[in-house]
Amino acid sequence: MPLALKNLGYSEKEIDEIIRYAKGSASLEGCPHINKKSLSEKGFTDDKLQAIDAALPGSFDIKFAFNHWTLGEDFCKNELGITEQQLSDHNFDMLRFLGFSREQIQQANDYVCGTMTVEGAPHLKDEHLPVFDCANKCGRTGTRYISAKGHINMMAAAQPFISGAISKTINLPNEATVEDFKDAYMLSWQKMLKANALYRDGSKLSQPLNSMSDVLEELEDENEDTAIAQDRIVQTAEKIIHKYVARRQRLPFRRSGYTQKVKIGGQSVYLRTGEYDNGQLGEIFIDMHREGAAFRSLMNCFAISISLGLQHGVPLEEFVDAFVFTKFEPSGMVSGSPHVKMTTSVIDYIFRELAVTYLGRDDLAHVAPEEILLRKLKPAEEQELADEVEKQSKKKQIITVKSEEPALKVQSAVSDDADTDYDRAKQLGYTGDSCPECGSMTMIRNGTCLKCMTCGSTTGCS
């Protein structure tokens, strides 16, 4: 800022006064109302005044320097008459306790800690104010800020020279309307921006740049301190949000969703989802009808626990990060899913499927979205292939299976009612298990283990 002011033609003395107006003096020397003289009359000694002066340069507000850590508990209790309960209360304002009014404290704060704006600064000309405009209103009294149109035009000037989008927040004031957001999006499109990020001031409970102090002052009582009012507003908002999130958001009685059937290691898995009206995932069902009662019951309980978590506000991302890459049987190749072709467990598959479908996590898929799209562009060829497979599966087939010792020929006919890979494998003389190496269902008994007739691998025996 000093260089900008110098380039605008201001003298060194004028620059110092402008900076002091915005930044503050960081000292009680010459401070209105709250100074060494007024504080001495209230019992402050020289060493305590020096301690206050030492704490002011690092204080965002003058009230932050007046505390029992700076002055000492004994001095606060014995000399100033402050009780233990008051000292332990983080809302306690020592300056108000000492008799200073809100207006006096604010004037002293502007002198010591600065106004945090150049608007109203001595010597500064109005035509030079746009040079110092920021994303939001500056300080308590500032009214100027860069408009959303200014942000967008600046990004548009740089966009032709950048291959990707620009990571830049377009700030709008707290009073911005829906129409203002619509206009910002339309202008961004007209300027051929690849992306934008709009943020309305004060839309979060806490934000890095806070310009909502004027709004809080309007809400507070005449005799209530600003800090207390702000804390009460934040606490109330937190309670409202906590109650909303903690309360179970039940699904509608008639809900949308989808059913996905896949085979994992020869085992059929049915995944059913339930959605809210806005398309958000709210529940899942898992069915593995060929598994035992204990395993099936555990999977049902697991699905219920996930569903309850989703309905109580747990993000799906948390479940995905926690359960992908879990490893247990059945595992291996996946058939029937357009996205996932290999999995380490049923749980791994389920959350890969949900992540791809509801979160757009293509990094957890094995088939790129454009490849799936290309496949769907040829429905005639796909139907022709499906018809051929169905035709071949219904034919009578005689398969000769040779074991190593002794040679054994087994003839088996496939019946027309074998509608699953498991049933066909069983009718052909195989065990119905999936090969852990190649995924084929041509496993036969080899002693106490299994051997794959397609690739020759075994499940443990030599």
Structure write-up:
The protein is α+β, with helices and mostly antiparallel strands and 462 residues long. It has helices spanning 2-7, 12-23, 36-41, 46-55, 68-71, 73-78, 84-88, 94-97, 102-113, 148-158, 178-190, 213-219, 226-246, 293-311, 316-323, 346-359, 369-376, 379-394, 421-427, and strands at 169-172, 197-200, 259-264, 267-275, 281-287, 332-335, 342-343, 443-446, 449-452. Strands 5-4-3-6-7 form a five-stranded antiparallel beta sheet. Strand 6 and strand 7 (342-343) form a beta hairpin. The chain is elongated and about 100 Å long. Residues 211-223 and 395-416 have low confidence and may be disordered.
Features of this protein?
alpha+beta, 9 strands, two-stranded parallel ribbon, 19 helices
The structure class reads alpha+beta
Average pLDDT, all residues: 80
Oligomeric state of the chains in view: single chain
- Please give the order of strands in the largest beta sheet: 5-4-3-6-7
The gross shape turns out to be elongated
Q: Indicate the percent of residues in helices.
A: 40-55%
Radius of gyration: 36 Å
Low-confidence stretches: 211-223, 395-416
Distance between the termini: 80 Å
Number of helices: 19
Strand fraction equals: 5-15%
The H-and-E topology, N to C, reads as HHHHHHHHHHEHEHHEEEHHEEHHHHEE
Number of strands: 9
- Main β-sheet: number of strands, strand sense, barrel status? 5 strands, antiparallel
Task: Give the structure's gist in a few sentences.
The protein has helices spanning 2-7, 12-23, 36-41, 46-55, 68-71, 73-78, 84-88, 94-97, 102-113, 148-158, 178-190, 213-219, 226-246, 293-311, 316-323, 346-359, 369-376, 379-394, 421-427; strands at 169-172, 197-200, 259-264, 267-275, 281-287, 332-335, 342-343, 443-446, 449-452.
